[in-house]
Amino acid sequence: MTAHKLNKFENALAAIASLFAIAGGLALVVLVAITGVSVFYRYVLRAPIFGIEDLSTMSLTVIVAASVAWTAIHKGHVSVNIITIFAGRAFTRFTDAIGRLLAFAMMAFASYALFVKGSCGMPCGAMTSNLGIIHTPFYYVLGLAMGFFAALILTHLIIGLLHWSGDDPNEVAD
Known about the structure:
By secondary structure, this protein is mainly alpha-helical. The chain has one domain (3-162). It contains five helices and no strands.
């Protein structure tokens, strides 16, 4: 696989991240509306809305999934790079590859686990306590976000291996 094809694939992942961002933005608007209505009913009308927490929690789940994908493509996750203080690029080539391989395995496993847990649905009691909203689609959205992150990490691993003798284009600047 060439670097050009990997860059095109990374651009496709960026487009997918934009779709996650749109979904997260819509969920954020819904969460703000839910919160506003809830506060109005609770404090002005003195009539709290039953099950409003369930709606808030489920919309927040979509926001979290979207933020995982969006920050992954924009390298917004927190990282502390202290190895470069003590060792140069010759050493970090290996640590980057090992770190990305472990991160890929962890994200792929998390995605798999979310899909397995989500597929159980109501028989496993995976629903909200008040309104009985089934968690299955929300597990799947989180699983897709983790799978997206795993695909991006794998892409960065391969790009890093292709740039073994030079600077890694996906290494976060200090």
